[in-house]
Predict the 3D structure of the following.
Amino acid sequence: MKKVVISGSAKLQDSINYWIKYFENKGFNILDYPRPIEKEKFMELYPKIHKDFFENITRADMLFVMNETKEQIDGYIGAETFAELTFALMQNLIYNKNIQIVILRMPSINVQSYEEINLWLKLGWIKLLEV
């Protein structure tokens, strides 16, 4: 069974739930996905959650970047999601992993990492979701 980690904004829980079901219906095992963290316990919980998320990326067959529209920006990719995407890419390039990196949609030119995403798509290092 292929293993997937879903990356994206934890503020988009309805979309996350949709993509969890989508991948489960395709026979994937969901290793991890963004979850909201209680504000009162954020500083206490975040380090372990963050570390575990990155460790799960190393165990995944696929990193799916759920770059939905957020803050009125199509294909939004924030700094955290870009870091996760870059981490998976470096696992492939440096350690010869074979993590398939798939993004939901081409980000808007207003996304800070637009140029890198565009380049990595052209190089074939990442790909757009084919539905």
Remarks:
- Strands lie at 3-7, 29-32, 62-65, 100-103, 127-128.
- The radius of gyration is 14 Å.
